[in-house]
Amino acid sequence: MDFSGNMNVKPQTTVTLAEVAEAAGVGESTVSRVLRNHGSFSQKTHDRVMAAVERLGYVPNRIAGALASAGSRLVAFVIPSLSNIVFPDVLRGAGGVLEASHYQSVFAVTDYDPGREEAMVAAMLAWRPSAVMLAGLEHSEGTAKMLRASGCRVVELLDLDGTALDLAVGFSNAAAARASAEFMLRRGYRRIGYVGHDLVRDTRAGKRFAAFCAALEAEGKPLVGREIHAGASSVEAGRLGLERLLARVPDLDAIYFSNDDMALGGYFHCMARGISIPSQLAIFGYNGLDIARVTPQPLSTIRTPRVAIGQVAAQLVLDDAPSQTIDLGFELIEGETA
Amino acid sequence: MDFSGNMNVKPQTTVTLAEVAEAAGVGESTVSRVLRNHGSFSQKTHDRVMAAVERLGYVPNRIAGALASAGSRLVAFVIPSLSNIVFPDVLRGAGGVLEASHYQSVFAVTDYDPGREEAMVAAMLAWRPSAVMLAGLEHSEGTAKMLRASGCRVVELLDLDGTALDLAVGFSNAAAARASAEFMLRRGYRRIGYVGHDLVRDTRAGKRFAAFCAALEAEGKPLVGREIHAGASSVEAGRLGLERLLARVPDLDAIYFSNDDMALGGYFHCMARGISIPSQLAIFGYNGLDIARVTPQPLSTIRTPRVAIGQVAAQLVLDDAPSQTIDLGFELIEGETA
DNA sequence: CTGCATATTGGCAGCGCTGCCAATAGGAAT
DNA sequence: ATTCCTATTGGCAGCGCTGCCAATATGCAG
């Protein structure tokens, strides 16, 4: 006989509210009221109910509760990736706030694919969440339609360059890119290149790139060269991208990277090749990752308020705030690499 | 009049299965069968139902479905942090597998606090998930009790040094630390120090530290010095920790860091101070982060199969596998810093 | 001690969907 | 054409909890 571990039996006739009521000698609605601390009941009743709950090890069934009350207290996050620290940061900010109000977070990863996003949104909507949080403002027609029809709050994060469906919390990627371009020009860099990643799928990176180029052109100093990695951003892609770009266009004096991961790759490449930063080549990133502040030379970059975005987004949902767009801005960190 | 955005009205009398049935001119159970592709129905019926679904924009209510079928297809993740990339990596691995089987992921962050873990587990259990995934094997008595009583699968991740409640997927932190110690001794380092973070809360880091010390002692080369940062691990904490340790114990020839984040901080510190690696000071990390492979000198570290752990854990749950422990091992990366 | 307002409480009908089972329909076999 | 078997289909009772409402208890002024 095998007495070890879980024997694959579903034991517990899972305790129900009715059983607790029975055990406490009160009605079901009374137990419900006590447990939710809603409505009125005597101290005596309260104690009796809690004792029964404790004794039976009762765990409320929120599935039933949500069905009965038509309120799931679930917030769905449909994000492009978990590898890019940006999204865990947003989840962290929102999660903290939601948790305090006893909301739970459900998430799904789209891998930057609008089709997958649509499927994920549909799947999430099936749980009748209180809100759906998405990255960016670009969504498929179907996604937008479902979201609008769902009647639940929608929060679009990290991008303000476009029109939102309901709530939007973030900052302007275009403005961030322009600020970067202006900063680099002000520093005197004239032969600027770009090393980035897939900017069709990552529409925010695409918007930054476009705005950056436009800002340079406006000053009569158009981008001199670019190298675009087909996949997701990574330190390795940044290193390789810079290596390739320099091979093609050696006389660059500064590089704008699609984000800090990429920029760190470039930074490491320079260190390994003995290219001195910023005198020989300047490097500018985007995101303001912690790690980029501790490198021998702190990275020049844009710090984005990722955690705050999550927090504000969650708070808006909790407050059932009217449709609006909230700009949390960004901060240009001068650093020492540009 | 304001016609902009969401006017805070809950429009849609949310379409129900009954309405779809009505519209399609079939019974409710038929719609249910078609939608779940379960049981039999004619092609004609299928088409009519799907047409009605499309026309009405019906989105099944999984809350009701879960209640009726007593199966939520929800997997709960109760993790210590989202800042430490380890956990997003595990989520990513598991999420990919689960998603393909139409399971959804719910998560909660404990911030390495057993008390919060207990609260989060209770909250998760209320959704009657198919499984609960936790980090490590150390849990409060209450957590363990609830989990056992819940009847749902429990998967403990990233640690195998102890006894599991049900399923466990990971590797031995102690073995990883021993391998690190042996490697460092083999390389000839004799005055080894440790720079780590809160190892009471992060029990896995604690186990590594203990095993590392034991391994050094077993070879008669006990740890020479240590510096422990009170909070969570970070690059900055690693840099600062090394700086402090060297101030107190200058003649070290190698440092074992609690993880790669900390190690990178140490690495940057050495670069900034002109301490040559590994000749003057060797650095050894833990985790095998991507970024640590692209630094001018790849970091010597232990690569942990985080994504695979998530994938295997999810698969075990999907397969309703019997209780067991799966060791996915780790890989020592020699690197160039030790 | 009586009457009325207020505080507590219990009963019970759903929430929207699934599972079970009986009913009907469509064919093949006789 | 009739019978039997199988493929389809509809009906309906819950799943466990909440919301509403009526019923009962309690407290206090009169």
Describe the fold and architecture.
The structure is a homodimer of 338-residue chains. Chain A has 12 helices and 12 strands. Chain A has helices at 17-24, 28-36, 43-56, 62-69, 86-100, 114-125, 141-150, 173-186, 203-218, 235-248, 260-273, 306-318; strands at 74-79, 104-109, 131-135, 153-157, 167-170, 192-197, 225-229, 254-257, 282-284, 301-303, 324-327, 331-333. In chain A, β8 (254-257), α11 and β9 form a beta-alpha-beta unit. The longest helix of chain A has 16 residues, at 203-218. Chain A starts with 16 loop residues before the first helix and ends in a 5-residue tail after the last strand. The interface between A and B is large, with 76 and 75 residues. β2 (104-109) of chain A pairs antiparallel with β2 (104-109) of chain B, so a sheet runs across the interface. The first copy, chain A, binds a DNA duplex (30 and 30 nucleotides) through α1, α2 and α4.
